[in-house]
Amino acid sequence: MKKHNFSAGPCILPEEVLQKASEAVVNFNNDDLSLIEISHRSKPFVDVMENARALVLELLGLENKGYSVLFLQGGASSQFLMTAYNLLNKKAAYLNTGTWSTKAIKEAKLFGDLVEVASSKDKNFTYIPKGYEIPNDADYFHCTSNNTIFGTQMKDFPETNVPLVCDMSSDIFSRQMDFSKFDLIYAGAQKNMGPAGTTVVVIKEDILGKVDRTIPSMLNYQTHLGKDSMFNTPPVFPVYVSMLTLEWLKNLGGIEFIEKVNEKKATLLYNEIDRNPLFQGVVEVEDRSIMNATFTLTDEALKDTFDAMRKEARINGLNGHRSVGGYRASMYNALPLYSVQALVDVMQELERKA
Ligand SMILES: *Cc1c(COP(=O)(O)O)cnc(C)c1O
């Protein structure tokens, strides 16, 4: 039996996806060759790439709206600089909600003026700032939809006339929203879509071509768009597994379906955190993430007992990020409800024992 996997990333993937992926590594499409040893220009792989790109648009409800999809390398971290390289002419506005936003801000500063419209650093990123103003003359506004490390999530996005850029690495495909509000969305695959090694970028093409600088080919979105995400050898295996996960999600009923499951899982865990006197949540209740729940023990003396119990219950990946401490339960799309129940059972058992 598989362990209950609450890992923050790389994260849990659906069993049927892992099964199909492992088969494709040995014998892809019954053609007696491995997926990872055929040409990326061959029809079987070109079909994978096209299908993966189409599924992204379909699931996000962005078909025929001027968006294109890329599967790039370098992780979401490379997008911190690539977005600025391609979009920042004079000035950009950023919302700072945690470690990842801070890193994005650091890179963008290399390319122009940066306005930090608001930050929750004053309270160790335990809330989402609200009521800030975005300068009308900014080239774009950048935010992080889900703060993977601290466990906060943006529930609303600002109305603004400047292009909206969002790092959705840890909550893309997890909840419904009007994705057409955004001009550029990026997400590292390994949080909610596939294995590490590719980053999905969804771009409204009309925001490109407006900066004065020369952009190196590999860092220029237009290069990759012009070649249908095949300018150079794409990460074939991560793209294939992402495609399988997106197919899995579509067959389940898409984002509309998975959002209900995700809310059920989050409600089950947060109710226990709030009810059980031995635990407390880390962040503001209204800003809690449905993907990453952070919590601590109210009595640190129980740590060894709790840790032994969760190990016994075969619960993996629950340690909080080193900058926060405590615990973090990552409940990505593929995590079953029964895994959250297993964690809640252990929390209740601790209460009985203590
Ligand atoms: C994990 C994460 C990143 C970094 O992703 P890499 O692919 O490791 O570069 C960036 N942003 C968010 C929100 C993340 O959760």
UniProtKB/TrEMBL annotation:
Residues 5-342 form the Aminotransferase class V domain. Binds 1 pyridoxal phosphate per subunit. Pyridoxal 5'-phosphate binds at A76, S77, W100, T148, D167, Q190, N232, T233. Its EC number is 2.6.1.52. It catalyses: 4-(phosphooxy)-L-threonine + 2-oxoglutarate = (R)-3-hydroxy-2-oxo-4-phosphooxybutanoate + L-glutamate; O-phospho-L-serine + 2-oxoglutarate = 3-phosphooxypyruvate + L-glutamate. Pfam families: Aminotran_5. The keyword Transmembrane does not apply. L-glutamate binds at R41. It is an enzyme of class 2 (transferase). Gene3D superfamilies: Aspartate Aminotransferase, domain 1, Type I PLP-dependent aspartate aminotransferase-like (Major domain). It is found in: Cytoplasm. Its cofactor is pyridoxal 5'-phosphate. The keyword Zinc-finger does not apply. HAMAP family: SerC_aminotrans_5. Belongs to the class-V pyridoxal-phosphate-dependent aminotransferase family. SerC subfamily. Homodimer. Catalyzes the reversible conversion of 3-phosphohydroxypyruvate to phosphoserine and of 3-hydroxy-2-oxo-4-phosphonooxybutanoate to phosphohydroxythreonine. This is Phosphoserine aminotransferase. It comes from Pseudotenacibaculum haliotis.
